[in-house]
Protein 1
Amino acid sequence: MATPTDSRAPAFYSRLETLPRAELEALQEQRLLTTLQRAWRESPLFRTTWSEAGLHPDQIKNFHDFQAKAPFFNQDSIRQFRDRYQNPCGGLIDLDNPHLSGMATTSGTTGDPTPMPMRFQFSTHETFIRDFWHIGMRPGDYMLLSVFTFRGGSSMILNGLKEAGVTPVYFNHSPAEIPRMIRALKQYRPTVISLMSSPLILGFEKYFEQSHEDPRAVFASVKGAVFGGEALSPRLKKMTREWGLELFETTALGDVGTGTECHRHDGFHAHEDRALVECLDPDSGAPVADGQMGELVVTALNDPLLSMVRFRTDDLVTLNREPCQCGRTHLRYYVHGRKGDQIIVQGRHVLPNDIRHLVENHHETASGLFQIVRRQKEMDVLTVRVGYNPARLQVSADALASRLADELQTSLNIPVNIELIADDELLKLGPPHKIPRVTKQ
Amino acid sequence: MTSDFMNRPHLVGRYRNAHGVEFLPLSESEMLRLSWFYRRVFDTFNLPPRCNVALISNFEDTAITAALERQLNQDSHIACYVEAVSFDAARLVAFIKRMPMPVIMGVNSEILAGLQALGQSPAELFAGKIVFARGEDAYQQLQGLADVRLYRWMDTGPAVTMECSAGGGLHIDGDEWEVSLAGDEVLLSSRKARALEFCNEATGIRASLVTTACSCGLDGVRILPKR
């Protein structure tokens, strides 16, 4: 058997990912025009939305036409179409479309789960493979695969890994799996872990504290771990570095794909041959300049089932189209939070990211578990439910709450009320990989 | 293509035996054989093409579900995914209410607990449907529902076992596995080349064996679990 080397990189990697911007944009435009015709033919939601706007794909000749004329839609549009027309696919395609082989759904974190029709060889998985390749995965390797949920099935990602010649070792995403993950790390010596999350890292921390095993030995074979679910906190980043584990943050690119960091750790790499990315003023819909914060709006360019055309993601981002020092030319984006997660307290805007490092700085609350309690859109006092480790409590809970409130008030310059809850209880309020950072109750 | 490639682990899942949970490496050829097993059993149900099939499972169960997903795809059915945990029972309800769902695979005790918490009646929700229970406790809870075609589907040690349309015991791929009993515990030995071979593996499953011919026409021994 031949020895895997870098020269065996997938053909789609080196050429497409390093295209000069002009060539990349030409490819995007060509794929966009094809996508619009296909969406008109196969997506009832697209046909309805565009018909209501008095628009037909034939009227779009280039990207500028598209940006000037194409209507937006969002998750609510899909759910409303599903309910109004009894279309289980939300109008993205029809249920009898022969390409359709699976129906995934979104988490439902922001409401009713949204349908995501899939085909067996799912286009997005090529982008996962590219990201794993950049981290260091090569044919013949094992990887530790612990995706957050079964909501998208298990074999579709398997197909992508099979194409890459990689063998996944499957786990549920749960801290309860850590002893078995440790066994797999020792037995199979995987090169990549996907995915890590805050609760899983906290579980590993607890395991290493209790077992006195050397994390560096456990993770010795691992070239990198993909981290998702929420932003990586400085404390967890520092701790995992000390374990010899390099984390590569990943995040959604709307619902049409993902963006993942490279070794430079300077933004999420989008795959622009797969997705047309726009950054727009959330209110006016006008484009904002690169480097300015706006709402991420995406269009799937190469997926016959996912007719996501100008999909408003609710994510607040900035874009960077400068080529990355890793060699790739596709744009990078930086996520600042979700539009829906913005809290207004006495006229001041607050996002969960503004709070996390303040919570983590305290020994008793170093897990960084907290929720903003938003009982109404605008508030006079910021209420934060903070998880703490009872074993680390050296003063009264009231004293800890008072100390936290003082620090947050000083830093954010708004009144703060702290509700303390044990870490384990707080973790029960969400799925295994994260807790909702903003809650109504 | 070398036999090395075909027998190299295509994935590593897990199986349970009498002692706990172990890794289960599966080669591509094992996956292929398992998908054929699923096809043979599914054929006894005479399903029309393009059925929506609710597939309830966990990510760690890929050694059991990946070949099934492949077979569903080849038969042009549509898999609708639900996590096998109580909080995802609402997702199952939403699927069933929004689209025709003649087959539901993998109803376990957690999903039943979730349905109960939602105030959903399994008798009403599953009426007229083919339901495969995962785990004998879930099977027993659903047994007796008048308008539900209830069957078993489970992992028996490293093997997948499943009832055909005739019910009355779990089929196992007899070309793949040699089945025996030690007392009333099922032991399995592999009969073909596998990424991980087994010899009298104690599965921890208590059962009796049915050796009479099945009316569905599938050959081989069937496993009838005991509570």
Note: The two ends of chain A are 58 Å apart (CA to CA).
Protein 2
Amino acid sequence: MTIAVVLFDQIAFKVRIKVGGKRVLMASSIAILDYGFGNSSTVRQMLMSSGFESAIVQEPEQILSNTHLILPGVGNWSSAAEALQAGGWKDQIRRSVEDGAYVLGICLGMQLLGMSSEEGPGRGLELLPTVTRKLRRENNEPSTHVGWETWSERNTLDLSGRVYYSHGYCMGDVDDRLEPSYSSVFPTIVSSIRFKRIFGVQFHPERSLATGRRLLAAFARSELEA
Amino acid sequence: MRLGFTLLIKNGAAYASRKWSPRHYLGHPANIVRILSDFECDEVAVHNLDPLNQETLDLLGMISKNAFMPLTYFGSIRHVSEGQVVARLGFEKVGLESEWTKNPNLVDDLGRVIGNSSVVLGITYVEDEAGRWRWDWRAKSSDSQPLNELLIRAAELAPGEVRISSASRDGERCGGDINAVKLACKTMDLPVSYQGGVASLEDAATLASAGAAAVYASTFFSIKPPFDAPLITYSKGAKL
């Protein structure tokens, strides 16, 4: 067993231990992936306001030693999927997940955890067997789901509260293994999923005031594991 | 319903506006946004009158760092790259105003990069006896295009949201234009937001019941009668 990094600061601390080549989590070392399609600095700011340090990384190789990965996302599926693939992010993220890293996908970042999207061509990270779909009138869904709603987290963590949504597509084909929660106003729209160490939220915790702060802090403290 | 705060920026400072001109100096925009974060404001819409140069981008970055609520940007986006830069600074929505009427392709092009749900089309109008006519809040001029025709054109471009704004009522605290909201909601199958003349939370509630997904105010939240003293406040009240 080798201790790879031990860092202490005022509030957050980071300890990573390697056992037989596998990363074993002691505490958090958070990387926010800046692949060109997300509000990385906003996520970092929100984490900082909760007392957690994080790093915005622009090269896939830089996430190798991180225990927690955040994939923000604002934009178009095809462009973002292409950026993940062409930039070498996809392989690196998948490798990190295999090594036991925690992953949080936000909005488009959540959708990119899956396979494909009705929004356009391109493959996602293929970590989850989901297909992103357009919001549907026949489901009484709006063309664009924008606004604040109360999110009811279906597990035991005290994370429920007001959250902010802004999206025209959502994750589809979500079965119970992914522990989905749904929009409180549009009950066919998936709000969050959780599968092992992979977590996704369709809303924007980085812009969801107190609830968002609690959720990001819970992720940073590794409390979201299924 | 979202209840948002509109911040007009001129020469790097924040103002409450009247007819979309700076009226009352409020302070540094980042400081205003920080106060609004503490008040748990639903949303802030930044309307920038300055050129989109590095100095402005630095200011927008500072605003974003102090905002824990969603941000929308309006002001001089002529190219996709400009919209992309603003979105990357942390603005969830990028608004196009006169740009989309001159270059409708910009809506789709920008949507392909930042997502259609993040593109807001703005229509500012003035009211007179003959109707409602488009008004450019940056150029301060009207071009006699009727509101109803603009709404149809906006709907065809399928943005994430359409924001209508009465320049005639802006800063007047005379009440919102309920008929314009009803017209917009009847014409379009898109979220409609409204700005202009809000004088009370009851006003905002009435506009919401007319179909507005969001209502924005500036003077109502920042200028206190009877002496028109600047004081940033924000509350949704129990009804909203």
Note: The mean pLDDT of chain A is 86.
